[in-house]
Design a protein that fits this description.
The complex is a heterodimer of chains A (about 160) and B (about 625).
Chain A lengths: L2 E3 L9 H5 L5 E3 L6 E3 L10 H5 L5 E3 L11 E7 L4 E7 L6 E7 L20 H5 L8 H4 L15 E3 L4
Antiparallel strand pairs in A: 1-4, 2-3, 5-6, 6-7
Chain B lengths: L4 E12 L3 H13 L5 E4 L14 E4 L12 H11 L6 H21 L20 E5 L2 H12 L2 E3 L2 E8 L7 E8 L5 E11 L29 H8 L4 E2 L8 E3 L7 H5 L4 E3 L11 H8 L9 H4 L5 H13 L5 E4 L7 H14 L1 H9 L10 E4 L13 E2 L25 E3 L11 H21 L10 H21 L15 H15 L8 E2 L1 H18 L7 H26 L10 E2 L7 H4 L1 E7 L6 E7 L1 E3 L3
Parallel strand pairs in B: 1-2, 1-8, 2-5, 8-15, 16-17
Antiparallel strand pairs in B: 3-4, 6-7, 7-8, 9-14, 9-18, 10-13, 11-12, 12-13, 18-19
Classes of the chains: A alpha+beta (about 160), B alpha/beta (about 625).
Chain lengths: ~160, ~625
């Protein structure tokens, strides 16, 4: 479902160019607006659709298997923490709106700056533990799993 | 050419590729290396890059030890049987024992994880999968990586790793170009963590024309994890173990939630259950150890995914297609119907678009399934990747050489798709592997193993010339013709990709041959890959965007060559349903209960293949 850009809505701001994982949203040098330069490398991931501040980008199902006349639109809002979708069928019989949360916390504020947390001790460095372990593993008194504690060992060959 | 060379020097840890593996590496590296210089080089924009760019509706690897659900060794047993025994159990155990702490952090950062209202535990989709509202999964982990890294370089296509000139087989950084400015970027680093992607688009896809981007794994997964590592002379493992996916037809929408949570099931075109009919024949091929329907209720072993594919493929070949997913029962429940649609919107919007376009309402009709073209990757249900060291306290001697997740090249680490033998890591496991690699890389530097690294200008200039060659080549020969793309002196990256896909499809077991190959076909395929390799020296790139495609193609080519050599080496059919060796149609545990390991000599391009022992955890 490659993307396309509506002429009257796009102002050539380049947000889609900046975000596209496939590097296929480019600015046309004549009309100075964005367009999809390589539809057969489009994954219809909707990253550009979500990033466009003017709702100028839409998706039309791939010509090799999708008939015309459908619509799947999206609005994503980091402030409100939701994404809203509207799906409309070709025959007009189905028109669904679906809303989902995208985060449970104010955007980006609950991710620790690891430069500011206490440095790991030598024991920690010499152990198999990672940051915030063992606490974040199990939230009980238990530690990291080891082969020894589980009564396991690695054995070569075929035996099952 | 007027492009500048920009050198970023004195990097301690360079992370190449910032999908789930790379963001995990960058995040964790800061904890173990407070004062270290941590730099990310990413081909796209870190906020939407990698396989999780469009989101995920589930985290497919979570033990739930906290809720008394599974232990790491349970997951090892599951991944082992799913891959017909061929896994690195030390790496799997290690990933599984840490993965829960990764997921708990994600929840704290704001990732919406669904809860079971009755138990308070995470909402399970299946035994290993939990359900999330993951539209912003990637932007959230990107924030974490950005908070840890000193610098994030977006839009850098890394083409090669740089090698130390004071000591053989030691990495010294990486080089590439900026996809926007065209400038050459040199990263001199003490340790490099390759967390680039696996490979889509190396086998001809079922989609054609405009739809060719509708592949199951992202089209920007260009096999760079393998191209970079193979190019540096790292040993690779299990590259023959490509994966074929049973998915909704054309859109390749996910089926996991449908099977596991919505309890939908498959039937053939005549409304019959078909899988079990194929088990007796299949048992003859693979043996009772791997397929024993009578004892499923005793062992709780799942049916390996490849064997279920085999049943689907065989049923269609027998003329009783198409295979349908029976959704009409489950979708009568409005809650389940909503989940079914959210599932697509959260990770494969294209499937929702296709059903809207073709008026497929799964409440009123059962949608079609198909099997995809093969993919080469190491984080989903398959284990292609580099031969890496395991953790000290778990790994047997053959699997351990000092630093966790370090490849056979010193200072060169892997995560996600780059690490071989570790299937079923998925997003959370890849992030966890990045964390493990980062801790080990910091230790490697602290142990003084990266002292005295030297990169000469000669090496940089040689690589620089190679990088821009497709642009140069185009400039020289373009005006020999009037217009168009047909030129006797060069091929375009797209033309090269088409050729690669066609030959992999026909000689290495793609969809056109029903995943069938043999020694004769593979040898022809290898010969044609060599011709292609020569022609890749004559790629013509009209602009910087095409230069990106040129280098993606070169990485896909290196990946393909490894796949071809590995497939030729393993003289058995280990995974019916993923591919078949027509000349060895049976699974052969006596000779091939081993992991395959390859190395391509970077100087000569010659391959050497060897068998490595396959260790298991005692008891089933």
């Amino acid at each position: 479902m490659p993307t396309f850009v509506y002429m009257t809505r796009c102002d050539g701001c380049g947000q889609c160019v900046d975000i596209c994982p496939s590097d296929i949203m480019h600015i046309d040098t004549t009309v100075r607006r964005a367009y999809n330069i390589e539809p057969n490398m489009c994954w219809e991931c909707y990253s550009c659709v979500k990033a466009c501040p003017h709702n100028a980008i839409d998706v039309r199902g791939y010509a090799d298997f999708a008939p015309l006349g459908h619509s799947v639109r999206v609005r994503r809002d980091e402030e409100k923490g939701i994404v809203a979708w509207r799906i409309m069928f070709r025959n007009g019989k189905k028109d669904m709106t679906l809303i989902a949360p995208i985060t449970t916390k104010p955007w980006g504020q609950h991710i620790p700056k690891l430069k500011e947390v206490d440095a790991p001790s030598k024991e920690m460095r010499d152990s198999q533990l990672l940051y915030n372990e063992p606490k974040y593993l199990r939230f009980d008194e238990g530690g990291l799993h080891t082969l020894e504690a589980a009564g396991l060992k690695m054995k070569q060959g075929v035996f099952y | 050419m007027a492009y500048q060379t920009i050198i970023e020097d004195d990097i301690d840890i360079l992370v190449v590729g910032a999908g789930l593996g790379g963001t995990g590496a960058a995040f964790e590296a800061r904890y173990w290396g407070k004062d270290k210089k941590i730099v990310i080089a990413e081909k796209a924009n870190i906020h939407r890059s990698g396989a999780v760019a469009q989101g995920l509706y589930a985290i497919n690897c979570y033990m739930g030890t906290r809720f008394g659900e599974n232990k790491p060794e349970d997951h090892v047993r599951y991944a082992r049987i799913d891959l017909m025994g061929m896994v690195r159990e030390d790496l799997l155990f290690d990933m599984a024992r840490h993965v829960d702490s990764t997921v708990h952090q994600f929840e704290e950062w704001g990732l919406p994880i669904m809860r079971n209202p009755k138990t308070g535990a995470y909402q399970r989709e299946g035994r290993w999968q939990i359900m999330i509202h993951g539209e912003s999964y990637k932007p959230i982990v990107a924030e974490a990586a950005k908070k840890s890294a000193d610098k994030v370089y977006n839009r850098i296509c890394v083409t090669h790793l740089l090698m130390d000139e004071s000591r053989p087989n030691r990495v010294a950084g990486a080089i590439g170009f900026n996809v926007r400015t065209g400038n050459c970027h040199v990263f001199k680093a003490k340790a490099v963590i390759v967390a680039a992607g696996g490979a889509s688009n190396i086998f001809k896809p079922r989609s054609v024309g405009e739809g060719a981007g509708r592949v199951w794994y992202a089209p920007w997964s260009s096999g760079s994890a393998y191209g970079l590592l193979i190019g540096a002379g790292a040993k690779m493992t299990q590259m023959e173990n490509r994966i074929v996916l049973a998915r909704f037809k054309d859109g390749y929408g996910p089926v996991g939630a449908y099977f596991l949570h919505l309890k939908t099931y498959t039937q053939n075109g005549y409304g019959e259950e078909y899988e079990s009919k194929w088990w007796p024949q299949l048992q003859q091929m693979v043996g009772k150890e791997y397929l024993d329907p009578d004892s499923w209720h005793l062992t709780h072993r799942p049916i390996p995914t490849c064997l279920r594919n085999h049943a689907l493929i065989s049923e269609v070949n027998a003329g009783r297609g198409p295979i349908h997913m029976v959704t009409m029962e489950a979708f009568q429940d409005p809650h389940l119907e909503e989940i079914g649609w959210h599932n697509f919107l959260g990770m494969t919007v294209g499937q929702a678009v296709l059903w809207a376009a073709t008026d497929v309402d799964p409440k009123n009709e059962n949608p079609e399934l198909t099997t995809s073209e093969p993919y080469v990757m190491g984080s989903h249900a398959t284990g292609c990747g580099a031969w890496c060291s395991g953790p000290e306290d778990v790994s047997p001697p053959e699997y351990f050489w000092g630093y966790n997740r370090m490849t056979t090249v010193e200072g060169l680490f892997g995560a996600g798709d780059a690490v071989g033998g570790t299937p079923h890591a998925f997003s959370s496991g890849s992030f966890t592997e990045g964390r493990l690699a980062a801790k080990a890389a910091c230790k490697y530097i602290d142990d003084g193993k990266a002292e005295g690294i030297r990169v000469s200008d000669e090496q940089i200039n040689r690589r620089r010339a190679e990088i821009y060659k497709p642009l140069e080549h185009y400039r020289i020969y373009r005006n020999e013709i009037t217009a168009g793309t047909v030129n006797p002196n060069y091929i375009t990256p797209r033309q090269g990709l088409d050729r690669l896909q066609k030959l992999m499809d026909e000689y290495c077991g793609g969809v056109s041959t029903n995943y069938m190959t043999n020694e004769k076909l593979l040898n022809i395929g290898l010969k044609k890959l060599k011709y292609l390799e020569e022609d890749l020296e004559k790629l013509g790139a009209e602009n910087i965007h095409e230069l990106l495609r040129a280098w993606e193609l070169k990485h896909r080519h290196l990946t393909s060559e490894a796949v071809m050599h590995h497939t030729l080496f393993r003289k058995e059919t280990r995974w019916p349903g993923y591919y078949y060796r027509g000349d060895y149609l049976k699974l052969d545990d006596e000779n091939w209960h081993v992991l395959t390991v390859s190395r391509r000599d970077p100087e000569t391009g010659e391959y050497t293949m060897e068998k490595a022992p396959c260790y298991h955890l005692v008891e089933d």
